[in-house]
Amino acid sequence: MYTSKITGLGYYVPENVVTNDDLSKLMDTNDAWIQERTGIKERRHIKKGDGNSTSVMGVKAATIALDRAKLLPNDIDMIVFATLSPDMYFPGGGVEVQEMMGMRTIPALDVRNQCSGFIYGLSVADQFIKTGMYKNVLVIGSENHSGGLDFTTRGRNVSVIFGDGAGAAVLSRNEEGSNGILSTHLHSEGAHKNELALQGPSTAHWVPEIIAENPQENIPYYPVMNGQFVFKHAIVRFAEVIQEGLDANNLEVKDIDMLIPHQANLRISQFIQHKLKLTDDQVFNNIQKYGNTTAASIPIALTEAWEQGKIKEGDVVVLAAFGSGFTWGSAIIRW
User: What is the model's pLDDT at position 325?
Assistant: First the structure.
């Protein structure tokens, strides 16, 4: 059985910076309120006319990742595209990336696991490479949140959190050495699906019905989140799935060189860091400047950590995510 390793990383965020003070002009909030609850100082939003979309940003991140992997688009055997905000209801973003990058008629798989999307996508790519079916798989996480948020006081608990951006990784067959993805661990608990959700429009709750049956102050096509409930579950599941991955590889917390948590909320990351007794040098956070970019958050953070020299060959790198579904997962990597 083969193993897979990350051979190229890339990310892209829009140039348009939206600060907490900018949001305070649209809703009843302020910089101190947002930072205290989330740790976020600013985020990036697509700006009308800048040419960006979920798929376009994915292509921009992927182009960098392929260049760093020293591969051409036609060297890719499969695309795994993770997003909750595709450009269209269907088809998904994977085929758009395939067309934009001029790739062969390779498979394009879309993953809809929200905040855990990149971990799920990484796991899928890893399995295809391990079985010998494919040699190079492109995994993308990309989100355009700003196109679907409620920028009024009514929606502030959700809208201040999210940002736009994309990250990408190339997974390649590792034919030498033992470095690479050691294991991935995935979970879900659908009993809590409505605690963080976007219920419409959907085939069960379509647009004319929404407009006819709901007053303006109760619009179900904006995302809803039970923040405290999500936080309490996240800190438990994060710790569990990280430990599960370590146990599977006979590793201990002290062996972690770098933890890249999904950038959901800085307070969650800090809680996990404290619980695991990790130092600041062992955990990478960038939610302060990008907000929560859902499926894009881990590949963006992983790329930045690598670019800054915080990840070196031989390091044990742990990726972990929790989010809507509920879904959660981890990946243990020997860099």
Answer: 92
In angstroms, what is the C-alpha Rg of the chain? 19
Q: In CATH, what number is assigned to the domain containing residue 205?
A: 3.40.47.10
Task: Cite the active site residues.
Answer: 115, 262, 292
Q: Full-prediction pTM beyond 0.85?
A: yes
Contact yes or no for 80/140 (Cβ under 8 A) = yes
Residues 185 and 293 in one domain: yes
Reported residue count of the chain is 335
194: burial class by Cβ within 10 Å (0-12, 13-18, 19+)?
A: exposed
pLDDT tens digits, 317-326: 999 999 999 9
Top pLDDT among 207 and 139 is at 139
Domain count within the chain: 2
pLDDT > 80? residue 278: yes
Determine phi and psi for 172, rounding to 5 degrees: -130, 155
**Last-in-domain residue among 177, 201, 219:** 177
